[in-house]
Amino acid sequence: MPELPEVEALALDLRGRLDGHAIAKIHVAQFSALKTFDPPLSALEGTLVDDVTRHGKFLDIEASGLHLVLHLARAGWMRWRDEVPTIPPKPSTKSTLALRIVLDDQSGLDVTEAGTRKSLAAYVVRDPQDVPGIASLGPDPLTDDFTIDRLRAILEREGGKQLKGVLRHQGTIAGIGNAYSDEILHAAKMSPFKPAGHLTDEELEVLYAALRTTLGDAVDRSRGLAASELKGEKKSNLAVHGRTGKPCPVCGDTVREVSFADSSLQYCPTCQTGGKPLADRRMSKLLK
Questions:
Q1: I need a surface site. Which of 1, 150, 200, 225 has the fewest CB within 10 A?
Q2: Where does 126-209 show beta strands of DSSP type E?
Q3: Closest to 124 (Cα-Cα) out of 64, 57, 75, 56
Q4: pLDDT digit string, tens, across residues 114-151
Q5: Measuring CA to CA, which residue among 232, 234, 173, 170 is closest to residue 208?
Q6: What is the value of pTM for the model shown?
């Protein structure tokens, strides 16, 4: 799933590509992706792209006062086309294409979603706050006003909830998903199951530094990359997420996994849990 650093890079890349262009046409290949009806999608046709920005993990293409807001969900992505096909795509539940944005010079953008679980969402709104997911977002962790005191207040409010869940809950902190929550906790040397409200002042400082550094470094590495390069860049720099069974790059211990119904987390026992494997909730036994 694209998270804050990748969506930030996508916004930067698209801002350069779309700036000064008009939207000529938008084709919908997956009707389930479009979540709004007023304004209609056709209202974007003929509008001039003014900006491309990010709200958490939402991408916002602003055009003549309207906003096309996209949430790529777990398997969504974007593919730039220097020249789009002249024949409009046919709606199909089997196609990976969800939306096609055609610009005034016949270049364009394909918004795709792999797999059968269709969760990608597109909204046409007058104000980004009209999108429920944006209206309920927590603070952005890379803004200047996201201070250590603000993080302290968040964690104290969450009390006994596990750090992993607190970090990735979009209504608590915006933009952090499954991958970067694993990476932040590994950098902070903290268990994903540690209670959020039980951190000492020293632990809070460590977590805050790990959060800002992990996300900030990922944004810096991604800046300037094309969409086609972002997935590879992210994967090549992960320390524990998606690396079950491989050695931890810090201590050499084997990266372990805890599986849930529809997701999993990865961690290093030596770095994060005092050498003790965590209980795998799905398998109901200790990982070995």
A1: 200
A2: none
A3: 64
A4: 887 889 999 999 999 999 999 999 999 999 999 999 99
A5: 173
A6: 0.92
